[in-house]
């Protein structure tokens, strides 16, 4: 059974959500302020966080950003007040997966939660125990390891995530914006230049000649395309 953490200081809303989710069969934990909510989410064992934006002690945006910064990928559904358009954009940029505007129908909240949990399960299932191979490179997504021949390559976390995204999306033109969105999750202080820099580093590790790449190919005006097919 999925365990959901509700971080919301308004007692009425918190209890309404808690009761409804329990009635739907979810395990529910609650936090009444930002600091305790953040610490609970960070401790792990939570499948989804319902996160209010305006919270005492630590605002929702900071919670989301710090969770993602700590490598916590638990889905976050943000609750925002009507008219906080900028906050919604910022929320998605700091790594929230979806948002709902208050006041909302409980039915819609439940539907969004189900969709996020389903999406998360599909992601987890797809990346389970899979090995991708091209040329003499093997990407083992279960062990998060990349081998070239018998040698284990030393990749940074972002290089690995970027390579994994390429191998999971072969032969597709991938724009820099899409890579930023999918790999960097709208992290602050990254630009499309960051993508190019990381592609450069990856090429040095997986290509025979990084100036004449055969796996990660530049598509001018678009971005990159990963082509795992052998060419003679
Ligand atoms: Ca609030």
What low-confidence regions span 5 or more consecutive residues with pLDDT below 50? 125-129
Strand proportion, as a percent range, falls in 15-25%
Binned, the helix content reads 40-55%
Strand order of the largest sheet: 2-1-3-4-5
- Got a strand count? 12
Structural class: alpha/beta
Bound molecules: calcium ion
Inertia-based shape: elongated
What is the tally of helical segments? 8
User: Which fold name is given in CATH as the topology of the largest domain?
Assistant: Rossmann fold
**Termini separation:** 51 Å
How would you characterize the largest beta sheet?
5 strands, parallel
Query: What order do the helices and strands follow?
Result: EHEHEHEHEHEEEEHEHHEE
Question: From the alpha-carbon coordinates, what is the Rg to the nearest angstrom?
Answer: 20 Å
What layout of secondary structure does this protein have?
Elements: E1 3-7, H1 11-23, E2 27-31, H2 34-43, E3 48-52, H3 60-69, E4 76-81, H4 85-93, E5 98-102, H5 106-126, E6 131-134, E7 137-140, E8 145-148, E9 151-152, H6 157-168, E10 173-175, H7 176-184, H8 192-206, E11 216-219, E12 223-226
Parallel strand pairs: 1-2, 1-3, 3-4, 4-5
Antiparallel strand pairs: 6-7, 7-8, 8-9, 10-12, 11-12
Helix pairs in contact: 2-3, 6-7, 6-8, 7-8
The chain binds calcium ion (CA).
Describe this entry's structure for a reader.
This protein has 232 residues and is an alpha/beta fold. It has two domains: 3-128, Rossmann fold (3-Layer(aba) Sandwich), CATH 3.40.50; 130-226, Arc Repressor Mutant, subunit A. The protein is 43% helix and 22% strand. The protein contains eight helices and twelve strands. The protein has helices spanning 11-23, 34-43, 60-69, 85-93, 106-126, 157-168, 176-184, 192-206; strands at residues 3-7, 27-31, 48-52, 76-81, 98-102, 131-134, 137-140, 145-148, 151-152, 173-175, 216-219, 223-226. The strands form three sheets. Strands 2-1-3-4-5 form a five-stranded parallel β-sheet, sandwiched between helices. A four-stranded antiparallel β-sheet has the order 6-7-8-9, with helices on one face. Strands 10-12-11 form a three-stranded antiparallel β-sheet. Strand 7 and strand 8 form a beta hairpin. Helix 6 crosses helix 8 (192-206). The longest helix is centred in the middle third of the chain and has 21 residues, at 106-126. The protein is elongated and about 60 Å long. The protein starts with a strand and ends in a 6-residue tail after the last strand. Residues 125-129 have low confidence and may be disordered. Bound molecules: calcium ion. Calcium ion (CA) binds at residues 9-10, 52, 54-55. Calcium ion is lined by residues 9-10, 52, 54-55.
């Amino acid at each position: 059974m999925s365990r959901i953490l509700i971080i919301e200081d308004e007692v009425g809303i918190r209890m309404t959500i808690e009761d409804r989710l329990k009635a739907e069969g979810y395990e529910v934990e609650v936090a009444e302020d930002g600091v305790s909510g953040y610490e609970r989410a960070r401790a792990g064992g939570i499948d989804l966080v319902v996160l209010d934006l305006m919270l005492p002690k630590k605002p929702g945006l900071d919670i989301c950003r710090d969770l993602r910064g700590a490598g916590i990928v638990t889905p976050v559904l943000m609750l925002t007040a009507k008219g906080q358009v900028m906050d919604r954009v910022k929320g998605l940029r700091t790594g929230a997966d979806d948002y709902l505007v208050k006041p909302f129908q409980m039915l819609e909240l439940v539907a969004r939660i189900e969709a996020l949990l389903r999406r998360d399960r599909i992601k987890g299932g797809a990346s389970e125990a899979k090995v991708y191979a091209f040329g003499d490179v093997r990407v083992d997504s279960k062990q998060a390891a990349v081998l070239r021949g018998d040698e284990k390559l030393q990749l940074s976390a972002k290089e690995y995530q970027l390579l994994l995204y390429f191998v999971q999306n072969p032969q597709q033109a991938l724009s820099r914006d899409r890579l930023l969105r999918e790999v960097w999750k709208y992290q602050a202080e990254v630009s499309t230049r960051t993508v190019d820099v990381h592609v450069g580093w990856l090429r040095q590790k997986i290509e025979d000649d990084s100036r004449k790449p055969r796996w990660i190919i530049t598509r001018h005006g678009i971005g990159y395309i990963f082509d795992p097919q052998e060419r003679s």
